[in-house]
Design goal:
Layout (H helix, E strand, L loop, with lengths): L1 E6 L5 H15 L3 E6 L13 E7 L8 H10 L6 E7 L5 H4 L2 H10 L6 E4 L5 H20 L1
Parallel strand pairs: 1-2, 1-3, 3-4, 4-5
Helix pairs in contact: 1-5
GO molecular function: FMN binding; oxidoreductase activity, acting on NAD(P)H
Cofactor: FMN
Organism: Oceanobacillus limi
């Protein structure tokens, strides 16, 4: 099985979450390609059994422009996209926390609930990531 983990990260939190997702996928024998949104060359989304897209939420609940450009780069709405993101409830409170993840889950009509992490994915949030990825993996296995 092939997986793409694409992410946009300014502070390093979303990158760290992407790396944890990659490691878990590799331990489940997925071939994983990492893609830094806005930096790496375009990808062929059709080459993957599952696509993970990670982002942070920008300016009052917005999806960063680089992520919007990546969505356009894909060029269609694949039905095997799982979304994750990092946020900070101290800026905007619960209403805006990881709002970009919610917007992308809705846009893609994702099979999976979006994974939302408070700032760094360390500590107890690593377990949350593991459980979420396991749920995605199980579902991908059913689709294959």
């Amino acid at each position: 099985m092939r997986a793409l983990v694409a992410y946009l990260s300014y502070s390093g939190n979303t990158k760290e979450a992407a790396e944890l997702i990659m490691l878990q996928l590799e331990s489940a024998y997925f071939h994983v390609d990492m893609h830094r949104i806005g930096i790496d060359p375009p990808i062929d989304a059709k080459a993957y059994d599952v696509i993970f897209i990670g982002t942070f939420t920008w300016d009052m609940g917005s999806t960063p422009d680089e992520v919007k450009d990546f969505v356009l780069e894909i060029g269609y709405k694949p039905d095997h996209v799982a979304l994750f993101g990092t946020g900070d409830t101290q800026f905007g409170g619960d209403d805006l926390f990881c709002k970009a993840v919610d917007k992308l889950v809705s846009f893609y009509q994702s099979r999976w609930e979006g994974l939302k992490l408070e700032q760094s994915p360390r500590g107890s949030q690593e377990t949350i990531i593991e459980q979420w990825v396991e749920g995605v993996i199980q579902h991908v296995g059913i689709l294959a």
